[in-house]
Design goal:
Layout: E1 2-4, H1 7-13, E2 17-20, E3 25-31, E4 36-39, E5 44-46, E6 55-61, E7 64-65, H2 70-91, H3 96-111, H4 113-117, H5 121-128, H6 132-140
Helix pairs in contact: 3-5, 3-6, 5-6
Length: 156
């Protein structure tokens, strides 16, 4: 089930460092004032990362845990950074349509096609800095020269 949700928003804005469990079947799209970020299984959320988040879109069944040891915190920070780096790689494409297509493909790999169908174009557009209409067009067809597969990020 995908939806915009306030309980995770309150958790993330509290300043408490959490992470999504490594076996979580859920993901978060975290909207900030001018952009959005993606966090999946194993990634740190909350803490100083997300105090200024304005909204959270929950995909699937999210499970949180408190990383208690230094090693657990480091691992969850690294996983969040890995998701951020993947988004940076996707957004480095100068073509907005190609970028949107790549983002939709990556979300399909991370979350599954059925879940991604329900994510509003506006949320995906905020992840990549594109217009919602561009995301809608990318969902309808694959641009020429765009690879059919993208690299997949897996929890560390």
């Amino acid at each position: 089930m995908s939806q915009a949700s306030s309980p995770p928003l309150q958790l993330l804005k509290s300043g408490q460092l959490l992470s999504l469990t490594a076996d979580s079947q859920g993901w978060l799209l975290i909207q900030k004032p001018y952009f959005a970020e993606f966090a999946g299984p194993g990634a740190a959320v909350g803490g100083s990362f997300d105090i200024k988040c304005t909204s959270v879109y929950v995909i699937g069944n999210v499970k949180f845990q408190v990383p208690e040891t230094h090693a657990e915190r480091q691992q969850s920070y690294q996983q969040r950074i890995t998701y951020i780096e993947q988004l940076q790689e996707i957004t480095s494409d100068p073509s907005p349509l190609s970028c949107a297509h790549t983002m939709v493909n990556q979300l399909n790999q991370w979350c599954g096609v059925d879940e991604v169908k329900n994510i509003p174009n506006e949320w995906i557009a905020q992840l990549i800095g594109a217009l919602p209409q561009t995301v809608a067009a990318a969902r309808q067809h694959r641009p020429h020269g765009t690879p059919t597969q993208t690299s997949q990020v897996t929890p560390a």
